[in-house]
Amino acid sequence: MMDESPSPLLFSSGTRDLTTPHSRPEDQAEEFFSLRPSSLREYIGQSETVETLEIAIAAAKKRGEPLEHVLLHGPPGLGKTTLAHIIAHEMGGRLTLTSGPALEKAGDLVGILTHLSEGDILFIDEIHRLPRMVEEFLYSAMEDFAIDFVFDKGVHARSHRFRLNRFVLVGATTRVGLLSAPLRDRFGLFRSLDFYEETDLVRIAARSADLLEIRLHPEGAQVLARRSRGTPRIVNRLLKRVRDYAQVRGDGHIYGKTVHEALALEGIDALGLTPLDRRYLRTIAEFYGGGPVGIEAIAATLQEESDTLVDVVEPYLLKTGLVVRTSAGRRLGAQAFSHLGSGLREVEGRK
Question: What's the pLDDT tens digit per position in 8-18?
Answer without folding.
Answer: 333 333 334 45
